Amino acid sequence: MKTILNVKGKSQFDEDVEQSIRSSACGPVTAFVMTQHLFPQGCPYTTNELYRLLGSTKIGLFKYRFIRNMRKVLGVEWTVAGCTIDEVKRQLDNGRPVAAKFDKWFTFRWRGKYGFDYHWVPVIGYEETTDDIFLFIHDNGGRNRDSQVRHISYKMNRSILSFIKIEPTE
Q1: Which range of residues forms the domain containing residue 24?
Q2: Domain Peptidase C39-like: where (predicted)?
Q3: Do residues 73 and 47 lie in contact, with contact meaning Cβ atoms separated by under 8 Å?
Q4: What are phi and psi of 48, to 5 degrees?
Q5: For the chain, how many structural domains are there in total?
Q6: CATH number of the domain bearing residue 39
Q7: Which pTM does this prediction carry?
């Protein structure tokens, strides 16, 4: 089974992102891409504003800050919480992208080979195989390159992956 959402990606190196924050803007770009998809009118904030509102730093965005500060930004109508791979699949099946954080540094998995060492990305789909789940992600671009959709093995990366869902509060 394969699910891929039609989500418009964004590069953290786009001209509208302040040059001084581009190298550490993957978390705010992920939040921007997710809210652009979830809100019919689009995201009410720029990536630069989200960088400050979420409490991003030059070394990145901590998961607890993403959750705590997105709750403040979105208000009580939205649930922002960590989630499991099963919840990731449920969110995607319901048309909602999920934030994924790759982090080998703060999980003390320095020697492994992973899709990214440290990076936030929007998960926009998945495909289950007999022995793995492949996640379809927007990679948030690079210098002089738009965001591209890539597929990443969950099995190879699960020890450094964490996820955050954003869904309407019931």
Answers
A1: 2-168
A2: 5-133
A3: no
A4: -60, -40
A5: 1
A6: 3.90.70.10
A7: 0.92
The single residue listed with the structure tokens 């001209």 is 15
pLDDT of the chain, 170 residues: tens digit per residue = 789 999 999 999 999 999 999 988 999 999 999 999 999 888 899 999 999 999 999 988 999 999 999 999 999 999 999 999 999 999 999 999 999 998 765 555 557 776 666 679 999 999 999 999 999 999 877 787 788 898 999 998 988 799 999 999 98
What is the C-alpha to C-alpha distance for residues 109 and 8, in angstroms, rounded to an integer?
Answer: 31
**CA angle at 136 for the pair 84 and 111, rounded to the nearest 5°:** 70
Q: Which two tokens stand for residue 6?
A: 């039609």
Site of tokens 């099946």: 93
Integer Cα distance of 7 and 152 in angstroms: 17
Cβ neighbours, 10 Å, residue 135: 26
Q: Give the amino acid at 133.
A: I
